[in-house]
Amino acid sequence: MNSTSVNESDRLRFVLAGLRSAGVSMMYQDTDLVIRFSANLPETWSLGGDLDGRTDETVFSPQHVEKVLSAKRGVIANAQPTKIEILRDVDHERHWYMLNIEPDMDPQDNVIGVFTTITDIDDLKYRETVLKTLLRELSHRSKNLLAIIQSVASQTARHSQGLEDFLLAFRNRVQSMAQSQDLVTASDWRGAELFALTQSQLQPLMGDLPSGFTMVGEDAYLFPNAALHLGLALHELTIDSLARGALGPAGGTVELSAKEQSNPDGSPELLLTWTETYAVRQAEKEGTNKTRNGFSGTVLGRIVPQALSASVHHETNADSMVYQLIIPGSQYELEG
């Protein structure tokens, strides 16, 4: 080849090489849809040699050929390009292809043939499938979250003394859920670590954890539903403790412990315990050993245990307060 010139044959070779490297195949057919030229068709299609003079029945399977022929006839009739997608089985694997069909026009704007470019779109279809799955999951989780917020709003209103009391309590509880949601979202919706979740709930209310607050045992990885509901429980426990317990007027220590054990069936479960030991002995009150009333009692005694399919024990006396959940293995995992 002359170094200063490129002939038409070379140009065509360069174009075909570029199409091949880009994974693009092409066909040209006359208005009778007889193949006059083809290049770079996938080798896995096993078409059996030269296609010149043959038809789409040679290239496409019976379940697709009518769809392809109908599209090409429409391009010839309307002189307008179109696109179609086909699914083809190759070596027992399914592959998606995009067919871009365009009319070939003469100087008088008459259609004299059709160009078809064929592109493998497996990657695009995979991304579409993943996106649809993510959107369905997002819709499902959003509905769950909205149901939780609706329940929190209803229960907060039921136990509030007035509008200002409701707004303050509701804002704090929504902020609590937002803290948990941030952790879950940051993990790509896998969940949240127990100790990080606890810190996220206490930090807005107390800043750095006080020296009297400790976390011991298994730093379980909570799945999204468990993280959101347990975050709400930790918020209520902290608020109660600041108001009347070891983090507030009673003084003393708080320990959050987590220990994995086996239930009678041999299945794993997490024993989660919030224990407050008071520095100042509290006056005994009627019903002290019962769970608390109000929204806090509803969250700790009913909403969270039901959401986690967990059993609950909540006891308060003059010297201490214990809140304990036994969480089934379906709600968490232990890493490492």
TrEMBL record:
Residues of the PAC domain: 80-133
One Pfam family linked to the record: HWE_HK
Phylogenetic placement of the source organism: Bacteria, Pseudomonadati, Pseudomonadota, Alphaproteobacteria, Hyphomicrobiales
PROSITE patterns, alphabetized: PAC
Organism field: Hoeflea alexandrii
Protein name: histidine kinase
Catalytic activity: ATP + protein L-histidine = ADP + protein N-phospho-L-histidine
InterPro entries per record: PAS-assoc_C (IPR000700), PAS-like_dom_sf (IPR035965), Sig_transdc_His_kinase_HWE (IPR011102)
Domain of life of the organism encoding this protein: Bacteria
